[in-house]
Every structure is written in structure tokens, then in C-alpha cells.
């Protein structure tokens, strides 16, 4: 029977009062909606979130996307749009992009990121362009950018880093190494000289009075 006036039968070729659409008009998709223990058929122009339209000679149907966290898909195993908070990558949905790929926030997609090579060996320990004369210095290592990112807005990982190191030679050959005077030692030395000067001045004054 065709229950035309019934809203549940909109777009149906055949319809059941209890189960809704059984067959849909041409170009519409048959969608089996479930509500609790009950289910009924609907005829839709486009499939709802989590489903994709499958066209067949018999009848077009809405089939469920089999990809986790997918909002809409092109086929059963290829997602075109992921749910909020997930990034789309090669038809799948991820919380974070795989290694070698960067997140494109405006589209919530994973694109090819900046690829860098292996770290070089640590360089010579130096300080002020000298490899001797100090106890501690810095050593640096670098790596090259192998592949630039698709977009200029995607940053590359650091390509140089330094760390503290101990000099191989604390004393330079042919030169005299002298420990730099510390500010605290200078102040202490100056204070001692002042005290000695004041003491000698007091002795001089006392001697001068005695002689008078």
C-alpha cells in the first residue's frame, strides 16, 4: 500500500505504515533508521553522517562507513571527512598525524611535512673560536633538510643544536694560562689593602705624637 499523505512515506515508491519506505524513487537513497527497538525506512537525497551513498541497479542505499571516527566517507573504506578533533590522512582518521606528516589545522588534514636527515657527529669543543685556554666550551652538531614541506607555514624541526663540553686542552701550547680573577677575590683584596693602609697610618700617627 502507498500511504502518500503520511510524512514517513515521502519519496517512497512503496511504503508501509509501520516500517516506512520499502522502495525509493529513482536517485534517492534508501536509509534504514533505527530508534530503540524500532526501525523504519526513509528515502533521502543524501546519506546522513557516518554513511555514504551506494548506487546499485536494484536500489540506491545508504551504507555505513567502516572507518573509526569518520563523519562522511567516499566508500566503505575511504573517509573524506573525519569527526571533530580528528585529522584525515589517506582515507583514515587520526588524533595526531603520523611521522613525517604535519597537521594542516584549517582543513584538519595531514600533509607531507618537513623531512630532515640524520644528525652529524658532534663538532670540536671550542669557546670564543678557541679550542684551548678554557675549562668548558660548546660543541655543535647539524642536520640537513632533505625535503621541504608542502606549505611554507609548516615549520621544520631544528637543524642545529649545541651542548656544553669539556676542553681537551685547558692550557694553550706555548702560552701561559692564568686563572681570571674573580670579582669577589678582587673586592676582598682591596678591602685587605685598605685595612693595612689604615693600620699603618694609625701607627705613624702614634709614633709622631710620641716623638713630640
UniProtKB/TrEMBL annotation:
The keyword Glycoprotein belongs to this UniProt entry's keyword annotation: yes
Any one Gene Ontology BP term: Wnt signaling pathway
UniProt biased composition (Basic residues): 176-191
Domain Spondin-like TSP1: 114-167
UniProt-listed InterPro entries: Furin_repeat, Growth_fac_rcpt_cys_sf, R-spondin, Rspo_Fu-CRD_dom, TSP1_rpt, TSP1_rpt_sf, TSP1_spondin_dom
GO cellular component: extracellular region
UniProt-annotated location(s): Secreted
GO molecular function: heparin binding
Family indicated by similarity: Belongs to the R-spondin family.
Protein name per Swiss-Prot or TrEMBL: R-spondin-2
UniProt organism field: Cettia cetti
Lineage, uppermost ranks: Eukaryota, Metazoa, Chordata, Craniata, Vertebrata
